[in-house]
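Worked example 2:
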Amino acid sequence: MIAGIIGATGYAGAELVRILAGHPQVDGLLAASAHHAGERLEDLYLNFQGRVSAVLEHPDNLIAAADVVFAALPHGTGEDYARSCMAKGVHCIDLSADYRFDGDEAVFRAWYGKGYQYPGLRRRSVYGLPELNRQRIQAMAAEGPVIIGNPGCYPTSASLGAYPALARGFAGEGPIIVDAASGITGGGREPVRAFHYPECADSLAPYKVGAHRHTPEIARNFQAMAGRPAPLIFTPHLAPMNRGILSTIYIPLAAEYRTGGWSRVSAPPDKDIEAAAAEFQKRYQEFYQNEPFVRVLPPGAAAATGRVRHSNYCDLSIHLDLQGCALIVISAIDNMVKGAAGQAVQNMNILLGFPEDAGLQAVPALF
C-alpha cells in the first residue's frame, strides 16, 4: 500500500512520515510540498537520514500514484486535492479544519473566514474522532472513497475527557469548563513572534481567551455525545514545551450524582468523596475498556503529557472536587500524534480494514 502525504514538510506532515515509515502495511511513501518540490525530505529533516529517502513532488503528481492521501495543509487550501482524491477513488484524510463541520458551512465561515468551495464533497466526508464515529467511518468506507475530517488537537483531548460523563448522563446543566495547555508545535512550523524562544520560554500564558476557533468544534462534539447542547467555556494556554496537550475539564454533576453540596468548602475530601471518585473512575474505565488508545489511570494518579509523548494514547485521570459536585477530568495527549498525525493514521487503519493500532504501538517516551 502506497501512502501519499501532501504538506510533508510541516510539523504534522513530518510526523506522518515518521509514523508511516514504520507502518507494517505501508510499502511506500510519497511526499509532496508545493514550496519544496524537487528537494529531498531527508535534507529538510535530518532525523530521516538513513531511514526515509524521498524527493518531494508537486501535490498534483502524488494523488494518481497513492492508495490513500493525507493532506497536512493550512485551513481552506485542501478542497481541490480532496476533490481529486474522490474522482480517483482514493481516501483522503484531511488534517485541517475544512471537513470538521460536516455541512455546517455557516459555522466554518464564521470561524475560519472562508466558505466551502465544493459543498457537495461533504456527502463523502465524516468527522474522524474514532471513539465517536468509528462505525460511521467503516460504513462510509464500505461504500466508496471517504474524506476524513481529522479532529483538532484541543478538541480531541477535551472530547475524550468529557465523553463518558456526557454520554452516561453524569453531567448537569451548568457549563463545562475546559482549561488546556498546548506545546508550541501546535502553532505550526512557520516562524511567529509568539513562538520565538524569548517570548515563550519559562512562561505559561493564555491566548485567544473566549475566542479560540476550536471552541465550536468542541461544542459540536459535546452536543453529539450528550444528545443535547452542552454549554462550554474553553481557555487555551501556550506552554513552554515542544509537544503535548494537558486539558483540565470541570464537569458539573447532575444532582443525582453529587456526593455533597456547593457550600462545603472548609473540610478536606472525606471517604465519601474518595469513594465517589473511585466509582466515576470505574465507570470511565468500563466506558473505554475496548478503546485501544484511551487509558484511564488508576485512582490517585494524575495524567501528564510526559507519559504520552510520541504516542497515540490519551491518558485520563478522574477526580472529584472536595464538595462532591463537580467531576474533574485530566486529559493528556501528544498534540502531534493523537492530536494530529497519529489519529490520522488510526483513521487510515479503520478505512482500510487494518488493525487499528497498526503502526501506532510504540511505548510512550518518558523523557
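The chain has two domains: 2-150+338-352, 154-335. Residues 271-287 form the longest helix (17 residues).
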